[in-house]
Amino acid sequence: QVQLVESGGGSVQAGGSLRLSCAASGYTYNRWMAWFRQAPGKEREGVAAIWTGDSGTIYTDSVKGRFTISQDNAKNTVFLQMNSLKPEDTAMYYCATDLRHGGRWYVASDFRNWGQGTQVTVSS
User: 10 Å Cβ neighbour count for 15?
Assistant: First the structure.
């Protein structure tokens, strides 16, 4: 069982940047790690994912070019660098892993292991 702890959220003005961290207490090599977000009244949305074996990445279209997911394998940590933030990026951001076999990176219910989330608020 991998324990995940997110950090780095906060309140920023539009156009600002934040870097989120997801620290894992267990082995995470050769598996998917993903960031999701959920705004009040909205569905949980897949933001980005990384395959920790070769650092291959995937992004949802709305954040492509603004957000970057990366990893530090030695520290068992995944990051989400968020630049050019917009008010519509406001949400609780969650880290997830343990994707089921045949699961989809953008489907929250396909992940079995979640952190508790970190709040990101972007004001205009």
Answer: 11
Is there a contact between 50 and 73 (Cβ–Cβ < 8 Å)?
no
Which pair of tokens denotes residue 49?
């994912």
- Chain segment 31-40, per-residue pLDDT in tens: 999 999 999 9
- Across 83-121, b (16+ Cβ under 10 Å) vs e yields eebeeebbbbbbbbbbbeeeeebbebebbebbbebbebb
Other beta carbons within 10 Å of 26:
12
**Spatial distance between the Cα atoms of 38 and 91, rounded to a whole number of angstroms:** 5
At residue 28 the predicted structure's pLDDT band, cuts being 50, 70 and 90, is confident
pLDDT at 4: 96
